Model the fold of this input.
Amino acid sequence: MAAVLVMQPTDVYYLAGTGQPCNLLVTPGREPVLFARRYLELARRASRVERVLEGAGFSAVAREAQLGEGPLGMELDVLPAGLVDRARKAFSEREIVDCSGLLLAQRAVKDAEEVEAMRASVALFGALHEAMAAHLRPGVAEHELAAELVRGLRRAGHEGVIFQRRWDARLPAEGALASGDNLTTMSRGPITVTGVGLSEAFPMGASKRRLERGDLVNVDLGLNLAGYHGDIARTYAVGELPDGIAPLATACREIQDVALAAIRPGVSSESVYDAALAAARRLGVEDSFMGYGELKGPYIGHGIGLELDEPPVLGPGVDTPLEAGMVLAVEPKLISPAFGAVNIEDDVVVTADGCELLGDLPRSVFVVDESGAVSGVPSAA
Amino acid sequence: MAAVLVMQPTDVYYLAGTGQPCNLLVTPGREPVLFARRYLELARRASRVERVLEGAGFSAVAREAQLGEGPLGMELDVLPAGLVDRARKAFSEREIVDCSGLLLAQRAVKDAEEVEAMRASVALFGALHEAMAAHLRPGVAEHELAAELVRGLRRAGHEGVIFQRRWDARLPAEGALASGDNLTTMSRGPITVTGVGLSEAFPMGASKRRLERGDLVNVDLGLNLAGYHGDIARTYAVGELPDGIAPLATACREIQDVALAAIRPGVSSESVYDAALAAARRLGVEDSFMGYGELKGPYIGHGIGLELDEPPVLGPGVDTPLEAGMVLAVEPKLISPAFGAVNIEDDVVVTADGCELLGDLPRSVFVVDESGAVSGVPSAA
Done:
C-alpha cells in the first residue's frame, strides 16, 4: 500500500492516542499526519502523533499525502461505502484496499501496559456481583435488575458505551441479561444467550419478565474502562439452585478449565475449541454445548481489547496461532430448553507457557438467597 | 432503481416491523421479500412482510431478485464499503446507488401511531427530573449522577441503546452530562455541549468532576422507548442559581418560543433557524447562541424519530419544507466561558397550522435545593 488512511475511532485511538475525531495518514518512510475533524487543540494535546493539522476533508488529505505507487488502505469493513467513494474520487480514482485485517492483527497482541489496563477493567466486575447480591430477588423484573447493574457499573467507572466493530452492533451498557424462557430464545444476536429485550425494535437484552424463586438469570456483559474491555458472564440462581443445575455448573467450569489449559503460544485458535468440544463430549453435555438443535454457535471464545469482540475467534476453521500477549475471552455455555442456560466467561492473557486469568471473580454458578448471601457451585477454586 | 435492498436495522424495522437481523428487498410491482440473516421464526412472527425466507447471503438474494433494468439501491451512508462491494459482485457488477435519502424522507413524516409512540417516549423524561431532584447535590461526581440517571431511565422503560445513523456515533444511554468548565469544553461531539468523559478513549459525557454548590449541570439526552426517541435537554443548578443566569434562562426560553412559533407546514427548515437567530440578536445573546467564538453549531434543531438525529436539520442552507407529521427537536443553547451553558430542548410535532409540544416538563432552568425541592426559572408557562 502507498499509505493507510485510518478513520475508525478505535483504530485512531490505538495508533494516535486520541479519542477526538481524526483521520490518521500513515505513509511508509514518512512522518504520520493526524487530521482533526473537529477540536484541533484537544486532538493536539492528546495525540502521540507530532504533526496534527486542522481539517480532515479528503481533498486536503490527498494534497498533503503526495502518495507514491500502490493502493490506499482504508477500513473497508466499517467505513460506509459512500464515504469511501468520496475518498476514492479525492485520491484521483486510486485503488482502495482493506487495511482492517492488518490493524486488527497488530492490535491482537497487547503490550504490558494494555494488559494492566485490561486487568483494571476486569476488576470492575465486582460491581456486577454486588448488584446481583443486592437486587436479585423474586418479583424484580429483568429490566429493573439491568437498571441496578448499569448503575453499579457506571459508578465503578464503566464508560457507558461498549466499543464494537460490527456496523450493525447494538448493545446496552449492562450487556445481555436473560432469565427463564428468555435464556433459550435466541433473538437478534449474534451471541447465543441474547435475551428478548423490551420491544420488537430492539429484541435483545433485559425484558420485563419478573423473576421467580428458582429461576436462573444469565448476565453476559462487556465493561469499558478507559477504552479497554472486560467480558464476563455468570449465571445466578434466585433463592435456590434448581434441581440438576449443580452438575451442569461443574461441567461448565470443567470445560472452561480444559479450554484454559489448551491455551499457549503457538497452538491454533481452533485447537482451543476442539479441546472444549472434546471435554463437552466426555462430560455428556455435547447436546447443550454452545446452544441446542440448530441454534448452536461454533466457538468457545474470542479476542478482546479496545473492542469487545476482536480476532481471533476460538472456533473451527480458524488457524490463527495464539501468541503471548493476546487477551482472550473464554465462554463455555450450556443451553437447553430442558434447564435454561449455564454460562461461565472469563478473560485471560496468553503468557509464555500458558495463560493467566485477569480477574478473581469465582468461576461458579451463584445462588443469591433472600438475605443477599451468595454461595457458588462449584465453590471457588 | 430496479429495486432497493434495505439492510440497516432501523430502516428494516420501519418497513418490515421486525428488529431481527434481516435484508429487505423491495422491487417495484412485486411483493417485498424479507431475508432472515438469523432466527427465521422470530423474524416471520414479527414481520409485516408476508414472504420471509431463510438465509440472506447476497447470491441467494440476487437469485430471488431477478431484477429488471436500472441500478440497485442500498444504504450507502451506513453500509460498509466491503459489504457493498460483495453485493455488487453478487448482482453481476450492477450499479449500486444510495437509497438512504429516499428512506429518510419517507421516515421524516410520522403517522398518528408514530406520534403517539413518541409522545410516550417523551413522557418518560419525568425520570430525568426525578433523578436530578433526588441526586443533584454538592459532592456528587458527574458520573455518579449519570449512574442514577441511567438507572431511572432504564427502569422507566428506556431500551438502553440510542439508535443513531452516523457510522462513528457513540453515546451513553443517559446522553451527555456536563458541569462547570466541562460545559464549555467541546470534545468529540458532534453536539455542542458534550462533556469531557472519563478518559481519552471516549472523551465525552459525564466525567469524575464533583459538583459544587452554585454549579450548572447540563443534561442532553435521548430516550428510546420501543424504538421511538425523545430528545430533551435541561440545565439544573446545584443548590442556588448563579448570578446572571435567570435572564439567560428567560432569553433561552424566549428563543425557543420564537422557534416554535416559526414552525408550520410549508416553511423551510432554515427559516426556523433564522427566526431563532434573529431572536438571539434582539435579546443581546448572539455571542453565546449555539456556542461561542469559533465553536458554534449552525443549527437550532433536527428531526427525530426511530433515530435520535434525523433530517431535516433546522439550520442555514437547508431548504427542506416542513410538513405536518414531522417531529422536531428544538434546542436553543447559550454557551460561554463567562457563565457556562443554558440549554432547553423539547420535541414537537408539526400540526396543520403550527406545532405541538410532545411533553409537559416545564421549559425552565431548574434549581435543586439541598432538600431536593425543585424550582424553575422562568416558571412553568
In short: The mean pLDDT of chain A is 97. The first helix of chain A runs from residue 9 to 16.
